[in-house]
Design goal:
The complex is a heterodimer.
Chain A: H1 5-19, H2 22-36, H3 40-49, H4 53-64, H5 69-79, H6 83-94, H7 99-104, H8 111-118, H9 125-153, H10 166-178, H11 182-197, H12 205-225
Helix pairs in contact in A: 1-9, 2-4, 2-9, 3-9, 4-5, 6-8, 8-10, 11-12
Chain B: H1 2-24, H2 32-38, H3 41-52, H4 65-81, H5 84-101
Helix pairs in contact in B: 4-5
The chains are: A mainly alpha, B mainly alpha.
Chain lengths: 226, 102
Amino acid sequence: MVVDRSVVKRGVVDALPLFVPAVPFALVIGLAIGEAGIGPFVGWSGSWLIFGGAAQLTLVSLLGSGAAVAAAVTAALVVNARHLMYSAGLAPTFQRQPAWFRWLGPYVLIDQLFALCSVQQEQDEDWFRTYYLSAGFTLWILWQLTTALGLAIGPVVPLEWNLEFAVPILFLGLIVMGIDKSSKVVAALVGAGVTYLTAGLPNRSSLLVGAVVGIAAGTIIERARR
Amino acid sequence: MSAFIATVVVGIGTYLSRAVFILALAKRRIPDGALLALQFVAPAVLGSLVIALLIDETGSVALGLPEAVALVVGGGVAFKTRNHIYTLLAGMAVFWLVSALI
């Protein structure tokens, strides 16, 4: 397979702004690992064993607070249950891909990568695979480095900058760029609204409730139109 | 040691949640009804994530004036420029500016 370098570059360049907000998050995880007292290597191993910041932070902080191991594992898995939707959302595109990529690709399927690639599903197979792997492993390498850095030297970016707010901004940007019909606007607005109304639910499950209702709303509108 | 095993278990569970539909549906025909619904996964999940990421430890949504104005400006810049860097810079600049003013 001939790799198109311009697509690699595009994947890397698109991934970089999405990583900026992950920097303070990675540093917080580094701090939490230190406070949890589970040892730096065990704490950092979650960066490549799990590769998902929210679940890693949930696991580390619950273990650190003395919660039962089973409870900490369950909470972390609930936090990561949203990935089921990413898997389903990209499944039609992965049907046209080679088997090795179907096994490797999911390993790096984090929020940011789903956001980037879900709006590129119309591209041809080689383009999509190159883009997915370039963006995915850019995020992966940076995540390994910054969580290790957070562990080693603590917060180098002041938390008062609230850099984590960049994530919702970028995700909203991706919604705007990915919308090609009004039923998708409805799906996004209903998802956001229901998540807002159910925000008090434990373990971030409001996200799952909001997303499912949003998908249903978009589907119903689209059906009614046909 | 139990912390490492816990991490391995969460890692396996996470991989499975990301892989299950991609692998299970690899060779099957996906019903038209499911395909219709799947196109709404991205907008619905991303829309929900925008709000979910603002939920604080107490379970309330931290959506004040700076956040709201920054989201509107960021969304507008994304629509106009289709560029992630401009979207990020504009949104964060407005967020910091409005936070400093109020």
